[in-house]
UniProtKB/TrEMBL annotation:
A GO molecular-function descriptor: ATP binding
ATP synthase A/B type C-terminal domain sequence ranges: 356-455
PANTHER family: V-TYPE PROTON ATPASE SUBUNIT B (PTHR43389:SF4)
Alphabetically ordered keywords of this record: ATP synthesis, Hydrogen ion transport, Ion transport, Transport
Domain ATPase F1/V1/A1 complex alpha/beta subunit nucleotide-binding: 133-351
UniProt-listed Pfam families: ATP-synt_ab, ATP-synt_ab_N, ATP-synt_VA_C
Family: Belongs to the ATPase alpha/beta chains family.
InterPro entries in UniProt: ATP-synt_VA_C (IPR055190), ATPase_a/bsu_AS (IPR020003), ATPase_F1/V1/A1_a/bsu_N (IPR004100), ATPase_F1/V1/A1_a/bsu_N_sf (IPR036121), ATPase_F1/V1/A1_a/bsu_nucl-bd (IPR000194), P-loop_NTPase (IPR027417), V-ATPase_su_B/beta (IPR022879)
Protein name: V-type ATP synthase beta chain
Organism, scientific name: Jonquetella anthropi DSM 22815
Protein function: Produces ATP from ADP in the presence of a proton gradient across the membrane. The V-type beta chain is a regulatory subunit.
Keyword Ion transport: yes
Amino acid sequence: MMLPREYRTVTSLQGPLLVVESVADVKYDELVEIELANGERRRGRVLEIDSNRALVQVFEGTDGIDVSSTVVRFLGRVLTLPVSADMLGRIFNGRGQPLDGGAPIIPEKSIDVNGLPMNPYSRDYPSEFIQTGISTIDGMNPMVRGQKLPIFSASGLPHNRMAAQLARQANVLGAKGNFAVVFAAMGITFEESSFFMEDFRKTGALERTVMFVNLADDPAIERITTPRLALTAAEYLAFEKNMHVLVILTDLTNYCEALREISAARKEVPGRRGYPGYLYTDLANLYERAGKLRGSTGSITQVPILTMPEGDKTHPIPDLTGYITEGQIILSQTLHRRGIYPPVDVMPSLSRLKDKGIGKGKTREDHADLMNQLFAAYARGKEAKELAVILGEGALSEEDKAFAQFAGRFEDEYVRQGEYENRTVEETLKLGWELLTIVPEKELKRVRDAWIEKYLRPLKESNGKNPAKAE
């Protein structure tokens, strides 16, 4: 390790950045210590090097720094995270320091937080079902171990409650005791932070969770570091402790705003809507740290949560995220206004790996057919309801009326569930078949006759219905 080198050659400040002249042997991303005239010390990192000039990003901001009396020390090392299995159950800030009043971690090792995306050659194909306990995900858009499945939300929607529910309930079937959650919150309010901490403590979820919290009034540069700290902890737990790790990142929009703020301070040429041109690359570097490695039993599954500005799916953040990840879960303002939780809009939502994690030996043999039939019936039911608004209910056929009834009950019984209601995949599948008893059996064209005979007809008989009449 190189010895620290001191300089008193700070020439300018702008936002969270300061420029140091006449430096030598300085490396990109090197850690920096800034000592003010009053003895206060701040941390930073090298963002750019131009011959003998270094641009330093100050984690705590540059307020109160006097250019003439400030000492800058280049420490000769990059930002690392001390890691240990004792991190589980602990809460850290956006710099990796304990925030829960507990003792510092006694590390097994320290790991560079910048990490690297997983080598595609070393990846193992995701194929194991993760049960979240939420029917709209487990039944309609299943999550697979090693997948990146973001949640697209909007201001005012309960994505924080949904994130907490995922952290409490998610599990790989048959892998109990070997599942961990790494939860990173960026730019959240103090009230939101308190909600997460209290909820995790109250429900016992904290015992298997590592939390990193960056508040809205914390420096923007910490927002850039927080997800990297979380993913470094996840990589340690997954690939050195052989755990199945679910990483929840909320809110990626705040992260991207911080990226834009720092890019503007650096006077970089802006890209779409003022975001830096490397936004795609930066997000990909985060998202592609998820996956399964060949020869390792551990894995990292990512659920990035982002609020779409003005609910716009074409905004650069959700747009680029959709390109990189394997699907998206979209939350609906309309369902939320009707008091439905979680307000998941199943029609535009998509899990591109859903077929890989379901079926016999994973969930159940009828899962794929049932999922396709529920999609088709819900789509037809919504069309029938729209037609009834225009032409009146009298214009609907008996089949259309049945599908319209199905759509209403699907939203009220299948989509809607309690915040602390943890449905097994079997309960979700049974509920789907119960709803299909509403529509005529002859209209069920996406499920095999064998599944109708095995799962649907017994339900009709137990409900006192005659299958023959339904036809």
